[in-house]
Specification:
- β7 and β8 form a beta hairpin.
- The longest helix is centred in the N-terminal third of the chain and has 18 residues.
- The chain folds into two domains: 152 residues, Porin (Beta Barrel); 141 residues, Sandwich (Immunoglobulin-like), CATH 2.60.40.
- It has 308 residues and is mainly β.
- It is built from one helix and 21 strands.
Length: 308
């Protein structure tokens, strides 16, 4: 039954591509793009939900192809997340196709290989829809993927003092007990309000009310410290696999000391990806995506939820 469903999905994706053979992808050199989508990853035994979310820039054009530099992003298999490490890509035949290949990093520290091929299915003036097929190869399995993904171009942002961002303020709570590294093998402390996550035979806790959030440039995030110790949230580059120096500060964001019960506001004027963490408690981390085309979209650990 599962293989029959997989075959039907493959046929639908292929058929959609054939129907849109005359479509033209409006892609260009030296532009920024956001690719987001979801679908399924399947082996002969299992079918898992999978999602893709990445930002990239287009570079030199050669004939009808344009090189792609993958800037940042992630791929998921159910509740397992893989962050972008070494990926390369191309727009082919002036945007009719997209090819993405390379490695992504999983939380287990092992490299996972991906090989995706996208075919343009439909487009509008604002975005394009691609059907993707390909493979995700982990140390345990090789999954065939089927995605439907939206490609949108990130427009240049013009700053102005006439726009009010009062309605674009989002509160992120630093949860009680966040300063204690939340790994417990046998119990949840009484009264602990952090959300437990189960994985690798351990119970892991959230440290912020949201782990990942997408906003529009110009939005303000208010960090509310509900913990019983002070916190300082800064931005930096994550050094995967380095347990002694997990982050390198990049100087883009710094809240300063947030005392227990106090708040700090940070306005994100530039688009891009921000990895935020507390240098005193580096397990406390949150990712902020700043794109001009989203409307306060909250991204949970495994599901996307549209905020109001």
């Amino acid at each position: 039954m599962k293989l029959a469903i997989l075959g039907l999905l493959s046929l639908l994706v292929a058929s959609s591509g054939l129907l849109m053979n005359n479509a033209f992808g409006e892609v260009s050199e030296n532009s920024s793009y956001h690719l987001e989508g979801s679908g399924f990853a399947a082996t002969e035994e299992i079918i898992r939900h999978s999602a893709i979310d990445m930002a990239f820039t287009s570079h030199q054009k050669s004939g009808s192809s344009i090189d792609i530099l993958i800037e940042d992003g992630f791929i998921t298999l159910d509740n397992q997340e893989f962050e972008i490490s070494e990926l390369e890509g191309k727009f082919l035949r002036e945007g009719r196709y997209i090819r993405i290949n390379g490695n992504v990093d999983g939380s287990d520290g092992f490299e996972t290989k991906i090989s995706f091929f996208g075919r343009l299915v439909e487009e509008s003036k604002e975005a394009a829809i691609y059907g993707f097929t390909g493979r995700i190869t982990t140390t345990d399995n090789s999954y065939k993927i089927i995605y439907t993904a939206k490609l949108s171009q990130l427009a240049k942002i013009t700053e102005t003092n006439e726009i009010s961002f009062e309605d674009k303020t989002i509160s992120i709570r630093i949860l009680p007990g966040a300063s204690n590294q939340g790994v417990a093998s046998s119990y949840i402390p009484s009264g602990d309000t952090r959300e437990p996550r189960i994985g690798d035979n351990q119970i892991r806790f959230s440290y912020f009310s949201e782990d990942r959030i997408s906003i529009e440039p110009g939005a303000t995030i208010t960090f509310v410290n509900e913990d019983d110790v002070s916190h300082n949230i800064i931005s930096g580059k994550e050094n995967y696999g380095d347990r002694y120096n997990p982050f390198t500060p990049d100087g883009r964001v710094a809240t300063g000391e947030i005392l227990p019960g106090e708040t700090s506001n940070i306005t994100f004027d530039e688009m891009g990806f921000y990895r935020l963490y507390d240098p005193a408690y580096p397990w406390m981390k949150i990712i902020v995506y700043s794109f001009p085309t989203v409307d306060n979209v909250y991204l949970g650990t495994t599901t996307n939820q549209q905020g109001n």
